[in-house]
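hey can u check if this looks right to u? its 80 residues, i copy pasted from the old doc so theres a chance i mangled smth
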Amino acid sequence: MTDIPDHLISLECTAEAERAKLAGLAGEAYDAQWHVWRSAADAVQAAVSAHAEAAQVDPHEVEQAVKAAVRQAQEDPAVE
């Protein structure tokens, strides 16, 4: 899979940024941020599924390609 739409990469970057914000949180703050991250992750999954269906390719392949593209584009924001 070589053609990854920019909007999928953008959605994955957003989800990763929201995941990184979980670091150091606890209690209600963690729970609130977890819901923000989960919503962003769900948006990624929905977009990946829609793209895979439209392109008639395996959604898992699309998801892995998106994650690889994001990893290549930036370092893990949770490691900072």
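Helices lie at 6-20, 27-55, 59-73.
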